[in-house]
Design a protein that fits this description.
Layout lengths: L1 H6 L3 E4 L2 E5 L6 E6 L4 E4 L5 H15 L5 E3 L5 H4 L9 E5 L2 H7 L1 H10 L4 H9 L6 E3 L2 E5 L4 E6 L9 E5 L5 E9 L15 H12 L4 E6 L5 H15 L4
Organism: Streptomyces rugosispiralis
Pfam families: Lactamase_B
Protein name: MBL fold metallo-hydrolase
Length: about 240
């Protein structure tokens, strides 16, 4: 099973848990396979990317994805969501209102970063909004495996959601709270003064031995997350 996933461009992280680094923007998409449900973590930057992800996951598992967790509201992580029609969508509290309010900003941001104008417009016009909002923590039963969604922000944005997959090893999908391929990006919607505390919550969630999956770049360990937390604290003048 692992070989099939790897041949399709996926990295196997733990039994039933994989991730893929997408082309163009190197954003991570994750998948967690349970007996009854399949959770996808983020959906890529375009409808085409989302459709390719959905068909690939369906082919590899023999089942369609049923649930989506959006780690934060940036174009490269959410614009493929409409390709997952019928899935239950989860996000941090307030994400639904923000996506509705900032649709034009989202479209322009995608275009500015290189998404074709028509493709960006189509994706935003058909954007899937969260059905379930997470304040604190929410457990999802995927059938034989429970996944924890945790609202650990604000930090990179005001709506940062992490996904903890218990097991050996534990896997934590961090969204862009953690980036390995470069310095974490603090755009106009970042809340720098709270970012280090968000990483403290992330480390408490996963613990010392977890595998931490950044929004961009290679999988890292707790020491990397702690070092990035300290760098952000120094960069933004946050004490503690």
């Amino acid at each position: 099973m692992e070989t099939c996933w790897e041949e399709a461009g996926w990295e196997w992280l733990a039994p039933g848990v994989a991730r893929r680094r997408m082309p163009e923007w190197d954003e991570t998409v994750g998948v967690v396979v349970g007996r009854t449900d399949i959770l996808v973590v983020d959906t890529g930057a375009t409808l085409r990317a989302g459709a390719e992800l959905r068909s690939g996951i369906t082919r590899l598992t023999g089942r369609r994805p049923t649930r989506i967790a959006l780690t934060h509201p940036h174009f490269d992580h959410v614009l493929g969501s409409a390709a997952f029609a019928g899935c239950e969508v989860y996000g941090a509290t307030g994400l639904d209102e923000l996506l509705r309010r900032e649709r034009e900003t989202l479209r322009e941001d995608a275009i500015r970063h290189g998404v074709d104008r028509d493709a960006a417009t189509e994706a935003v016009d058909h954007l899937a909004f969260p059905h379930h909002l997470v304040c604190g923590e929410l457990s999802l039963d995927l059938g034989g495996r429970t996944v924890l969604l945790a609202n650990v922000g604000p930090g990179h944005t005001a709506h940062d959601l992490a996904v903890l997959v218990p097991g050996r090893p534990e896997v934590v999908f961090c969204g862009d709270l953690v980036e390995e391929s470069g310095t974490p990006q603090a755009g106009p919607d970042a809340i720098p003064g709270h970012w280090p505390a968000a990483l403290d919550r992330l480390l408490a969630l996963g613990g010392a031995d977890a595998r931490y999956v950044p929004g961009h770049g290679s999988v890292v360990d707790a020491a990397f997350v702690r070092a990035q937390r300290d760098e952000l604290a120094a960069r933004f003048g946050v004490s503690g």
